[in-house]
């Protein structure tokens, strides 16, 4: 299994219509849905904003008003054929005045999704877990030492310090045990 290294874009044009594709790695369904919402706002003049995403066995796609199975399913098939997980692909269609028919739509949405993925780097997917860490300000150096090789997703230094750290599933127990030895609370 693979995921995307970062966001990317793709483009396909046919008979006046433009299909602008956006591909991105996402951690969960909420992030995928937020990506779709953001792109709808960024493209208010688009006729359709179709998408697909996958997280392991969970898959979702939407034709967003296109004929049934002519947009979301082709995008999802591209994601599956690339063996992607934890990824979303959104294709924004600007209608060019000529109807493409279902075969033309399938070809266009597939091509746009393929272009966005081709403009990205695939990286091996490593399952991760989020760990919430609470600590006193005086423990900041010890926490930074333990977390410097991981991605800090959130941080808060108000009354009590808090990090949310993304840790590979295979290192979770060792990481939490090391924090406990340093008397740092983790959940």
Task: Provide structural commentary.
It is built from five helices and eleven strands. It is α+β, with helices and mostly antiparallel strands. The chain has two domains: 2-124, Ribosomal Protein S5, domain 2 (2-Layer Sandwich), CATH 3.30.230; 128-186, Alpha-Beta Plaits. The strands form three sheets. A five-stranded antiparallel β-sheet has the order 2-3-6-4-5, sandwiched between helices. Helix 2 runs parallel beside helix 3. It is elongated. The two termini are 28 Å apart.
State the separation between the terminal residues, measured CA to CA: 28 Å
- The coarse silhouette is elongated
Mean pLDDT: 95
Strand content: 35-45%
Per CATH, the superfamily of the largest domain is: Impact, N-terminal domain
Strand line-up of the largest beta sheet? 2-3-6-4-5
User: How big is the Rg?
Assistant: 20 Å
CATH second-level architecture of the largest domain: 2-Layer Sandwich
| Helix and strand composition category | alpha+beta
Count the domains.
2
Based on DSSP secondary structure assignment, what is the total number of beta strands?
A: 11
* Biggest sheet overview: 5 strands, antiparallel
Helicity level, as a percent range?
25-40%
**The level-1 CATH class of the largest domain:** Alpha Beta
Number of helices: 5
| Poorly predicted runs of 5 or more residues | none
H-E string: EEEHEEHEHEEHEEHE
| CATH fold name of the largest domain | Ribosomal Protein S5, domain 2
């Amino acid at each position: 299994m693979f995921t995307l290294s970062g966001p990317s874009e793709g483009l396909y044009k046919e008979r006046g219509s433009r299909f602008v594709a956006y591909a991105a790695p996402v951690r969960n369904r909420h992030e995928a849905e937020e990506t779709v919402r953001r792109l709808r706002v960024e493209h208010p003049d688009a006729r359709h904003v179709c998408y697909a995403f996958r997280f392991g066995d969970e898959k979702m796609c939407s034709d967003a008003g296109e004929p049934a199975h002519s947009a979301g399913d082709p995008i999802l098939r591209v994601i599956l054929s690339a063996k992607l997980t934890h990824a979303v692909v959104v294709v924004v269609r600007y209608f060019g005045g000529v109807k493409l028919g279902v075969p033309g739509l399938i070809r266009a949405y597939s091509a746009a999704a393929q272009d966005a993925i081709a403009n990205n780097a695939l990286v091996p997917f490593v399952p991760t877990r989020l760990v919430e860490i609470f600590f006193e300000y005086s423990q900041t150096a010890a926490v930074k030492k333990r977390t410097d090789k991981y991605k800090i997703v959130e941080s808060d230094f108000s009354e009590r310090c808090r990090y949310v750290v993304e840790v590979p599933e295979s290192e979770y127990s060792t990481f939490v045990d090391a924090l406990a030895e340093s008397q740092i609370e983790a959940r």
